[in-house]
């Protein structure tokens, strides 16, 4: 089945540079609705989730740019790229010198896509289809892009990530201002003007930020660079 999905991705997408991180190329779709329909036809199912793996979302692009510009954030560390989708952020982390990246996503197509994309960029990724929310496997850094578009998901994930930061992990969140981003709990690190797909967003360019959780006292990783 993975081979079938890999062939489908190759047939229905194009290998293109990521707009805000052109050092990385991904297999990307030209138009969301058509690919969504073709995915449902391929699996003979209706009501599948959108093909998140086929687009370079704003939060992921911002995180990838931040990591590439600040490789010390991940260099030599064990990294989790949570809700990885295409694998963009994990690929950026490997290019920046991470010791290992686990790219996690529950979507079958995402697992196939991130493998293709990692190979296209000449880096290894370890993929995981497990639901890791609530788990702690000792990651040094957790990268999470575009996770705050649903209320219940955003609450569960951000509480989990905050707990990981409390024990010493460095947590970075990329987000263009989704409805359920808990801004009051976060510290701003960087802001970018990110080109996006008009069919998925309400603009051609989204102002997108990289955040971490605000902490009352200094913790490991508190020297992460800020960009104003």
From TrEMBL:
Q: Kindly list the organism's lineage.
A: Bacteria, Pseudomonadati, Pseudomonadota, Alphaproteobacteria, Hyphomicrobiales
**Protein name (record):** Methyltransferase
- UniProt-listed GO biological process terms: methylation
Report the source organism: Microvirga brassicacearum
The record's listing under InterPro entries reads: Ribosomal_L11_MeTrfase_PrmA (IPR050078), SAM-dependent_MTases_sf (IPR029063)
Asked if the Swiss-Prot or TrEMBL record annotates the protein with the keyword Protein biosynthesis, the reply is no
List the SUPFAM superfamilies hit by this protein, alphabetically.
S-adenosyl-L-methionine-dependent methyltransferases
Q: Which UniProt keywords apply?
A: Methyltransferase, Transferase
In terms of PANTHER family, this protein maps to:
ELECTRON TRANSFER FLAVOPROTEIN BETA SUBUNIT LYSINE METHYLTRANSFERASE
